[in-house]
Amino acid sequence: MTSLGIVLLVVGAMVAVAEAHYPSHGIAGGAGVLVMAIGAVLTVSGAGAGVLLGLAAGLTVAALGAVAVTLSVRSGLAVRQRRIRTGAEGIIGRLGVVRSWNDSSGSVAVDGALWRARRSAGLDETEVAKLDSGDTIVVERVNGLTLSVRAAEEWELPQ
To answer: CA distances (Å), 155 to each of 4, 92, 146, 150, in order?
Structure first.
């Protein structure tokens, strides 16, 4: 019984650690903790310490494992709520400065990089004509290496 308990402890720990690297919203982690608790009961009771002490060890392992899995799942869910900070999606909503502008397209500087830009869909020609060199813009979409931008409104400008 002791060797089976040790095997269950090791397998349960591996499954619980896999939850941290490949999130399954607590399903794998919970199963791993359950297998570890059963392994603890078998190991302690098989070593001659008695069933009552084995159950106490199993409950302790289960409680500690449940806390660890809960914290891991909560951290994983919190990360999903964060704003995207890198890649093409990370530039949406950023402020930039117009470097040059002709009719409906031009170049803008956003986060230290120079981008091709065009007016966002749905804007009329009069608003596009207002864009001049030095104006502040807001990035609304990214299409390849071209940004769709609009003029920044007063409330969007940094104070």
So the answer is: 66, 17, 25, 14
Structure token digits, residue 94: 């950023």
Could you state, in order of their start, the residue ranges of all structural domains in the chain?
2-80, 87-156
How far apart are the C-alpha atoms of 130 and 128, rounded to whole Å? Answer: 5
What is the model's pTM?
0.53
Q: Using one digit for the tens of pLDDT, what is the confidence trace for 37-92? A: 999 998 888 888 888 888 898 899 999 988 988 888 888 788 878 877 777 778 88
Separation of alpha carbons 48 and 39, rounded Å: 15
Eight-state DSSP code of residue 155: G
Architecture of the domain spanning 87-156: Beta Barrel (2.40)
CA pseudo-torsion sign 41, 2, 18, 71: positive
The per-residue pLDDT for 109 is 95
